[in-house]
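hiii, so i know i said id send this last week but things got crazy w the move. better late than never?? heres the sequnce for the chain we talked about at the cafe, plus the structure i predicted for it. fair warning i was half asleep when i ran it
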Amino acid sequence: MTESYARKLAAILLDAVTDKDPVVQEQVCSALCALGEAQPEEALSACEEYLWQHEKVSRENRRHQQSAWVLGSPSRTFLNGFSAQLAHPYRTMILRAMETVVSGHIGELDKDMARAIILLASSEMTRVKELVCDWQQAASSVLVAVGKRFIGKVMEELLSKFQPGALPHYFVVQTLANLAASNVFGMVPFLTSILSTMLPMLGMAKHDTMRAVFCCALQYFSESTLEYLANLDQAPDPTVRKDTFATDIFSAYDILFNHWLQSREAKLRLAVVEALGPMSHLLPSEKLEEQLPKLLPGVLALFKKHAETFHVSKSLGQILEAAVSVGSRTLEPQLDSLLAALHAQICVPVESSSPLVVSNQKEVLRCFTVLACCAPDRLLAFLLPKLDASNERTRVGTLQVVRHVINSAASQMEVKKPFILSSMRLPLLDTNTKVKRAVVQVISAMAHHGYLEQPGGEAMVEYIVQQCALPPETEPQKLGPDSEDLPADGVRAISISTLYLVSTTVDRMSDVLWPYLLEFLTPVRFTGALTPLCKSLVHLAQKRQEVGADAFLIQYDGNVTLPSPYAITTRLLTVSSNPYLGDGRGAASLRLLNVLHRGIHPALGPRWATTIPLLLEHLDERTEESLSQKEWEEKLLAFLRDTLAVVSDNTWICQLSLEMCKQLPCYNGIPQEKNFLYKCIGTALGAASSKEVVRKQLQELLETARHHEEAEREGLACCFGICAISHLDDVLAQLEDFMRSDVFRKSIGIFNIFKDRSENEVEKLKCTLILCYGHVAAQAPRELVLAKVESDILRNIFQYFSTKVLGIKVETKDPALKLCLVQSVCMASQAICSSAQAGSFHFSRKAELVAQMIEFIKAEPQDSLRTPIRKKAMLACTYLVSLEPALDEQVQADTVHSCLHSVMSVLPEPEGQGDHQESLYLDTMHALEDLLTSLLRRNMTPQGLQVMVEIIAKRLPPEQLISLLLTMFEGLGDPDKNCSRAATVMINCLLKERGNVLLEKVPEIVSVLRTKLQQTREEYVLQAAQHSVYLLASQHCAAVVSSLLGSPLPFDSHTCTLWRALAVEPGLTAQVLGLLLEKMSRDVPFKETRAFLLSSSPGRVATVLPLAATCALYEVMSALASGPAVLELYPQLFAALLLRISCTVGVLLPRTLQAKEKRGAGSALAPRSLEPCSSAVDALQAMLLRGGNEDVVQRLELEGGWQLLRTSAGHEEGVARLASAMAKFAGPRLPLVMKELVCTHSSVYEIQRVTSTGFLAELLTSNVVNDLMLLESLLDNLAARQKDPCASVRRLVLRGLANMASGSPDKVRAHGPQLLTAVIGGLDDTDDPHSLVALEAMVGLARLLDLVEPQDLRPVLLHVAIRIRPFFDSEKMELRSASIRLFGHLNKACHGGCEDMFLEQVVGGLVPLLLHLRDPQAPVTSACRFALCMSGPNLECAELQAALQKHLQEGRGLHFGEFLNSTCKLLVRAWAGPPPLTLLLPTGFLVLHVEAEHRPQVDLEQLTAALQLLLKDPAPLVRMKAAETLGRLVKFA
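okay and structure toks below
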């Protein structure tokens, strides 16, 4: 690009800057900036010349101004005479563009250009005395931008307008200030002369605005000076000193403080105070000392006058720093007022929405830091009493200051630590959450600076731990923006974080926290803090270990406040039983236990290093929901047993068990953990070798237990049972001693005083003892139990039950005692049965115990199931029945009758009544089943069996009837054919008579039938099995179908036989087909998976149930007898199977079935293919054959349609061919089929909606839809699918609508508006990333254009033309070709009547059409030729039309450069007349995009002239586009 051309472009753009439209103005400025990027000096020169030209001055004045500069510069060539003055808003825009260019290219400016710009900007800035802020600020910014490099020249110009004796222009002062801020090293050397000139001016300034700008300048000058002095090593003049400016600054200070600060104007007061801060650092020391008594009160007074006090606080901090730096003595008398004012500021609540308030607090704290460094005693004397105030804001604010000075004035606070610590006494007691948070933050600061090592520091640590122990919020509180409270959980969270950070990052805290934190492990009130405590202790212990063994060793004996190793072990082990509570305290406790192993016992290290990680791994692999509590407790008890075995020290073990007993009361109200602790005690006592200790602790446990609590009774009984593993005799002896002891008798005597209470308490005590005996029997060694069970255990159990079994009636009112007795008897019986000597053991009391259990069962209410007594008693009987001696037949019969009668009379609880009741009912039923099974295994006599059968026939529910049926099924395989035949008859008779109650057992019956068929080849068994299935299906059709569907795939021949058995009777067959359709359609047809070995792309695997249903449909419909049912369900079957095919295309078999498929393919009798899509195609073929449509099957076979349906690429085409065949050969079936397919528009599967839409769309290619009067409903349905989220569905809808052009062309005109609306809507489809919907819309619209009414087409022409324009430049050849060809059809439709608005689109489309004539794809170039030829008549230029027809004939070669040049000339020539001016715009774009070898043929001068004229077009959009085009021409080279 030549310089002259750049200058010409700039002149055109500058002339256009006065456009009235803001959007056009913005575009012109953008173009100027773009020109500046390419040619900065040319652009700046043009702007400078333009602004001078449009200044209203005389030639003489202009010549006088020029004389100061180098003459002959191109930028100073002016027009003769005067130029019109340019209004300041437009001058502002040009100046801003100049600033942008200068800022980006300051390094490229030469001195002459810099001088010219400086003169211009100075003139613009000071031309008028009045303030015109935008204009003058823009000029000032240009000077500041130039001043970053040419500071001397800028200052020369500014100082010429900053003369003594005259008040300067406002923006001269402002520019000096901004220069000082942006170029410190360049400006400070000028400040001496500036200040000497400025000082007299201060007295001349009468207006507040002028005074404010002087304040701003003094502020910036002072800040720049301070920065300069702070970086003298980098400064150009290192000899500059502070006293150089002292006198001038003080003179200015005197005026600002004594006169201007008293102004009523708030803005001026703030400007003054902002300046006073940095100025105070430059005042002479003696003057600052002299002024402080007046200065500080004056500044403090502003706190009351201003709501926003940030600037006041900032300035005050600077003044205080200056005072301290000179060692001021006058500061002390003012400390009280200073502290009071600053404290009031810090107590202002901080609102998150007000950043100035936050910044103000930072500045206030900075002031406190200064005071803390110079007057720490006075500061603390003021602050610490404030901590005793009860006001929340006062206390929180004071704590903030205390924390800040602890951090920022550490050396001054060193000797004050005891006073600060003692002052925290009352804040530690405050319950306000904001105060708590502030206290925690203060303690955190104290920890970093050694406060907690002082006396009283331990109270701070305890406070942190207390806050860690706060209960966490279940749901975080929602606080409004005005809320001043914090959730307690927020205090807890910050406390936990503080404790961990102090433990891990503050090295000096190690000696404070270790081993002190151990004291908080055992107290119950700190339970909530266990997890953070353990984590901190683990880190501290590990650091100690790294230092050495001596540093890690804990002297437990020397520190009485520390918990003993036994207490720590007990506590950590117990809380680990509930491991996910309290943020995972189980894992934290175990980790701490592991690192403390040396202090707990020296021998534990190697073993715990192996066992504890395994426990932690178990927790890591599970969650709170998936963890089995029973399994976890067993692992912990095994860990404890292993630990005790490794220690193998009786004294240590006894001490541990004693500590465990001492901690039991700590867990009152926490039954789960207390129960586990009882188990730990039993484990420890079991490992102890001292019988005396064992007996003594068992006695104490019995005396101190809370027997009225069920959980505690169970826990104590477990303890006795576990202990009995090693000390059976001692445990039994202790239980008997307790019964005979004074404690037991005394308790009874005391209870008798309060008779009602005494009976209850004694019963609970007896419950405990009975349970203890039961657990002893269950846990003790089996070889020892048999000898004790009758003589000691059962005898005492019944003695505590206040009865003797022999001959004495058992009576008790307490159901808990009764349940304990039943449970203990059950455990004792189970223990006997599991003994190796159970077969030879003669249980003499067996019959009596059974009778007792039956009595309990009979005593239960007949209409409800309230307690587990029935279940427990039947379980006891189950174990007792298997023992010797055998029960009498009558006793067995009575047992069966009583149990059945008691259980069967209770109805199951309705759903939703609670999981507990439902579980109890099921457990009771299972107990009954186990009892009956146990009785049968005892070889009952015919009489007993007969009784049982009679009872079952009358009372047994359906789920129990299956046992009898299973026995009969076994008879099917009897080698005696008479027996097997009888079994078949009995089975079928029973199914016929009682089959209606066997719904839940249908799967089991069907499974047994299939198994028996595989085991026998007898024909009568096969026929009987088919009949059995038929009978079951007649009563439970759905259950039979579900059961057969559960058969392994592929179906074997026996399963296929059973399926065909269901096609015997039409009514049943129709029901079966309906169920199979439901099964096939209800479940998801496939699941997404990831191809593991081949690629990372997701794949689809068929789900088994729909696949099985598809195969079953084929089997049922392959039977000839199924014909009537198929005809009845023809539309449903056709639609469902077609949709099944669609959603199985490309779907794979599950891996297990793939293996079966491969094995089956190699066998001689391979079953049909299991491939999901092929199975569905086979079923559809069978359905069409059975429904009488052999022609459809044959037609698709000839056309390859069946194969296309199976493939992803050909599926749509296959569906289309199926629809075509159905239209030709099965027309009468279509109305109902279409009705079924219409319902699929809401299917959740895209592919099903795609298939149904494709089928319906293809029907419109046939005239049969008119014959059947389906056209209207088809159109309505397709229209309803236009909003489908699937792009393929929307695409096929458009294809179907366009198909009317083939199937019903005579109907297109009648439906023209509807069709056009729908197809044009497809053009606006924005949810299709690949634009295939739009492609279909363009192709379809091209098919319909010739058939619709012209009056329907004209209103939408413009919209269509606009919408298809973006596709001209699409990366996809198909979209380019279709859109361009459609554009040609639109032009063709407008021949002879093109409206102006559409003509704009025609003109706008010329650029891409001309460019795409060079497209590498032949279809696109062909479409371009067609579209251009069709556009010619609408351009109303005969020469242009003839040229297009001449050059663009199909088959003729095209010389593109020659064609382009002639076309551009014709376009420009056409503009000379009255055609639309927008013809030039596409020409500009065309030129910009033309290839490099053709650019010399473009006449830029002619184009530029045309664009210049367009800048005067009345339409703003045209002017904007012209400016945009000119901006693009800037880059043209």
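btw The mean pLDDT is 84. thought thatd interest u
miss u guys!!
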